[in-house]
Amino acid sequence: MKKVLSIIFIIVFAFSLIGCAPKGDPSQVMNDYYQNIKDGNIEGAYDKLSEASKKNFSKEDFIKWQNTSKEVSILKEAKVEKSNEYKDKDLDGIKYKNVVEFNITERTQDLYENKENSSTYKRNVVNDNGTWKVYRGKENGKEMVAGTLNNLALMYSEGKGKTKDSNQAAILFNEALKYDKECTNAYFGLGVVYYDLERYDESINLINTFISKEKDNKQKSLGYNALGNSYSGKNDNNKAKECYNKALELDPNDQYAKTNLQDLK
Fold first, then answer.
1. Angle at CA 203, nearest 5°, toward 200 and 205?
2. Domains in the chain, start-ordered, CATH in brackets?
3. What is the pLDDT of residues 41-62, one digit of tens each?
4. Among 123, 146, 148, 191, who pairs with 68 as Cys (CB 3.0-4.6 Å)?
5. How far apart are CA 186 and CA 192, in angstroms?
6. Which of 248, 225, 228 is nearest to 236 (CA)?
7. Antiparallel, parallel or unpaired: β 115-127 and 132-135
C-alpha cells in the first residue's frame, strides 16, 4: 500500500511540474541578449532567441543584419524593465506556458543623421521548451536585412555618415534587392544612383518599377521627378516635362517638380 501511495505521489508531483516556469532569470536573458549585441557577439545574441524567432530569422541573415546595422546606427544602451507576466499566452499564433513582457528603451547613435535617438518598445522572453528565450515577434529576416542594406546604401549615395561613393551605393542597393524584391525604396535609390552614374536607361527602368510598386502619391511624385531627371539626362525634354507635370499632378506642392520645370524653359 505504501509503495502504491509513493508511486501516486511521484506521479502527482511530476504533473505539478508540467508548465512550471524554467529556472533562471528572464530579465538576465533579455539583458544578455542586448549586451551580446553591444559587444559584437552576434552569435551569442542569436543563441538567446526562441525557436520561432530563429524560423523567422536564419542565423546567417541575423548576422548579416546586425553587422550591417552597426554601420548605420550604434546601440549605446538598452534599458530592460519587466512590465508583465503571463501564463498560457498566445503570441502570433504560438501558445507559450510562460511569457514575461519587458519594456525596452534603446539609445542609439544614428550615423546617417549624426544624432542620438531613443525608442521604446515591448519585447518578450518566453518558456521555449523549458528554457527562457527571447521572442522578437513576427518578422521577416530577409526584409530586415534588405531594409538595413538600403539605409547603408543611402548613406553612400548621399555622402551622409559615409564618403559619397555612387558605385558602392549601387552594390548595396542591388544586394538589398537580392534579399527582398519588394524593397521599394531600393528601386528608387538605385535609380537615382544610376542617374548620377549617367546610366539613364537603367535608371528609367528602376524608377518605373518604383512607381508601379509605390502607393503613396507624394512618394510617386518623387519618383516622377527622378524619372524626369533621367529623361532630361538623355536630352529628351518632352518626356522630362511630361514626368515633372505628372509629379505636380500627384503632389501640387512638390517644389522639386516646379523647379525642374522652370529649368527646362
1. 115
2. 21-139 (3.10.450.100)
3. 999 999 999 999 999 999 999 9
4. 148
5. 10
6. 228
7. antiparallel
